[in-house]
Amino acid sequence: MLLLNQVAVSSDINQSNNHNDFSAMNSNDDPGSRTLSHLASENSPYLLQHADNPVNWFPWGEEAFAKARNEDKPIFLSIGYSTCHWCHVMEHESFEDEGVAGLMNEAFVNIKVDREERPDIDNIYMSVCQIMNGSGGWPLTIIMTPDKKPFFSGTYFPKHSRYGRIGMMELIPQISNAWKNRKQDIEDTADRITTALSSMNGLEVKLNAGSLSASTIDEAYDYFQKTFDETSGGFGNAPKFPTPHNLLFLLRIWKRDKNERALHMVEETLTQMRMGGIFDHLGYGFHRYSTDPQWLLPHFEKMLYDQALLTIAYLETYQATGKDTYRETAEEILTYVLRDMTSPDGGFFSAEDADSEGEEGKFYLWTIHEIKEILGPTEAELFASAYRINENGNFTDESTGGKNNNILHLTKSLEQIADEQEIHISDLRIRLQNARTALFTVRGDRIHPQKDDKILTDWNGLMIAALSLAGRILDDPDYTSAAQRAADFVLKEMTLPSGGLLHRYRKGEAGISGNIDDYAFLTWGLIELYETTFRVGYLERALSLTEYQITHFWDDDKGGFYFTPNDAERLLMRTREIYDGAVPSGNSVSLLNLLKLSHITANPELEEKADQMLQAFSAQIKSAPAHFTHMLNGLIFAQGPTYEVIIAGDREDHSTTAMIQAINNQYQPNLVVIQRPCNKEAGAITQIAPFVKLYEAINGQTAAYVCKNNQCSLPTSTIEEMLKHLK
Description:
There is one protein chain. The chain is an alpha+beta fold. Among the domains are: 45-200, Glutaredoxin (3-Layer(aba) Sandwich); 237-328 and 349-452, no CATH class; 640-727, Glutaredoxin. Helix content is 48%, strand content 10%. It contains 27 helices and 19 strands. Strand 18 and strand 19 (711-712) form a beta hairpin.
């Protein structure tokens, strides 16, 4: 089975121009019946980018499919997102070209889809691309029958054929000719692809595959140990993606087995990423991925989900090691998010573009001349030495354009640089910070990359989780407040009266039925927010969302959750996603949600659901464990040892807050914490978790009850004794 690895933007697709039996369509044909695009009234920034194309685009919907059936035309489906560099390239080369548009309008009914708005559609047809080509990417190009069955796929296509890749001007006439003259062959191919897709998406589950065990976890660890880049951190060769849940998995291996090698791989990867060009050293935040093994040259998009998951990885590593560099990086990421990616209402925007002024990365690049002009010769020399800036530019890549450009990055620690420059480390930090501030101010006057300002429930859920963790671990109420504002916004503006969720909010309008990621990721955020604030309302919403999810997404036949609810639009098929790609799958996150909620509430039915999930997906996980690391994080939690700590005491009591913060300072991923107030507020938590009624303060003093694998120790009023039980 082909698995969708981290996506390469310009994948090498073996589609050469060798179809000699096709006759060419006249590329000078008048666009003819082209009308104005149907995208102008859409809310997606990506679709609006294409609203003025000469291509007669339709949004996904019955109008387009009815037109295709009535006119007996195949559908050209183009899927991308607003901050995708190669999506912009294909638009400029082809979709803005009158000649290409004329051929497309004559041969096809053309549909544009924003993958971030409709991940359900994207998941299906990306799997098609995997089956047919062995790789995928965006822009995703699918040609299919009017009944949504695909028969041709690819990613980026140039206007004209080059380097063995067929171009749009050659491809379209060939597809058109085949549709007219070999339609039955096309339909047979489409049927075979649909059958293969059904198998690939896990709908044919192997029953009695056996339970997952520690050996499955060990096999995943072995994969990372073998593919670890000893020089630059990360795993495998270029391109390199952050994939933070892999690092969270390795942290749990370190904790479980006292495996120092696992911790080393995490630390080296996080350190090298922070030093590399994938990190924005002026404005902070991480770019999407690196095109080289050294983390130097990124694709410059900034995605909200990367900021959230990387914040969690740096925070957990700070908890595990106590090293301030990881705390500082987490704070820098959040500085970027709260400054540049937060709406006035409290929700978080989706992404920032790779391009500005038509060039990828232009906003982030510097020449040595610019640096000298801004900083002066002395400070410029120090800054250039630290951040590896030179006259000729520090990288070469055709997508960046121009020469002599530099991307800021470090190859040595600040301590090493201070020694080389014979400067005290504190002086070096001040001088570099002053230089960064000056450059950041000048950069602010440049033309900024476009911001995708839609607010997505699932990605906001991840950021709520990250901010909640930051507020808890760093004891910073500002982070907690930001998490609460976002959670309150999503729960108010993106929740239906039925209790269901909507997926997207933009410019005062919420829409699109929520998918499994929306429910799972928001629930994750609410659980983290409860354990930070102990406001029972967030826990209640997490439980109600989980109940709704089980009712509308659960697969009663095979177990696990479908990607779409049972009342959603009927697509080619209803899939169950478990692959942990750029973000963990909704099923993986749901597994941990179920386990944590079951331990907080002592509800065995939730734990049974979690066990059914592990059974349902065991065959797929065993086939390639390293592709399911967040699911394995859930397995590690399930296998234990797992701790429940009940703090019996009022939050206003200093001893209560001191105990809670002492727990927050510990790296203990298999842990849930419940606060049981002594005052009248106790009723709220005891209604959800009746068992906590038994746990009370001792003689008016805050008491901690540490339970390991559902067996509780005697209560203690001292932090030292509590931590002893946890260790």
